[in-house]
Design a protein that fits this description.
The structure is a single chain. The strands form two sheets. A four-stranded antiparallel sheet has the order 1-2-3-4, covered by helices on one side. Strands 5-6 form a two-stranded antiparallel ribbon. Helix 4 packs across helix 5. The longest helix has 15 residues. The model has no long low-confidence stretch (mean pLDDT 84). The relative contact order is 0.15. By secondary structure, it is α+β, with helices and mostly antiparallel strands. The protein contains six helices and six strands, in the order αββββββααααα.
């Protein structure tokens, strides 16, 4: 028997396929229908422009009451993403931090991806993680082209297209 959460994910997935987000592709795991892999092509005019960012979202049976588990496949060196062991450690984004305060529509899988994209475009250094040091912050905020070079040099294996 299909759970309420799984039925909702199916509806939201179909809606996302019919009304795609530009620069985003989605694939649903055929063996685990509660797992999605998104490829976001980095937003234009950001340090991530045209970089492929892979993110896995896994939902439990209690969705939408429970938020998804989010795993960035590789560290993208963003102040609002804590990445230390190859697994997701945290996404500092209002939607995911304050999940219970949002409506069902605001928690749709489409809105979740849009929240991640917005976070990439508008990093919040006030609520960022400590693993993003002051040198990175200065580069990120004052010299985006230098920060992009820093990303490309330090993460060149990941960023190969």
């Amino acid at each position: 028997m299909e759970t309420k959460g799984l039925s909702l994910l199916k509806i939201q997935y179909i809606d996302l396929l019919r009304n795609p987000i530009p620069r985003v592709s989605v694939e649903r795991n055929k063996k685990n229908l509660k797992e999605f892999t998104y490829v976001i092509i980095g937003p234009q005019n950001t340090v991530y422009e045209d970089i492929k960012i892979l993110i896995k979202f896994t939902y439990n049976d209690n969705y939408p009451e429970s938020k998804p588990i989010i795993k960035f496949v590789k560290d993208i060196r963003h102040p609002n993403i804590l990445f230390s062991t190859g697994e997701y450690d945290g996404v500092c984004c209002d939607l995911f931090k304050n999940w219970i305060n949002y409506s069902l529509e605001e928690k749709s899988i489409k809105q979740q991806i849009l929240a991640i994209i917005n976070m990439l475009i508008n990093p919040n250094f006030q609520t960022g993680y400590a693993n993003f040091d002051i040198t990175q912050k200065d580069l990120f905020t004052k010299n985006k082209s230098e920060y992009r070079k820093y990303l490309m040099e330090n993460l060149k294996d990941y960023y190969k297209q």
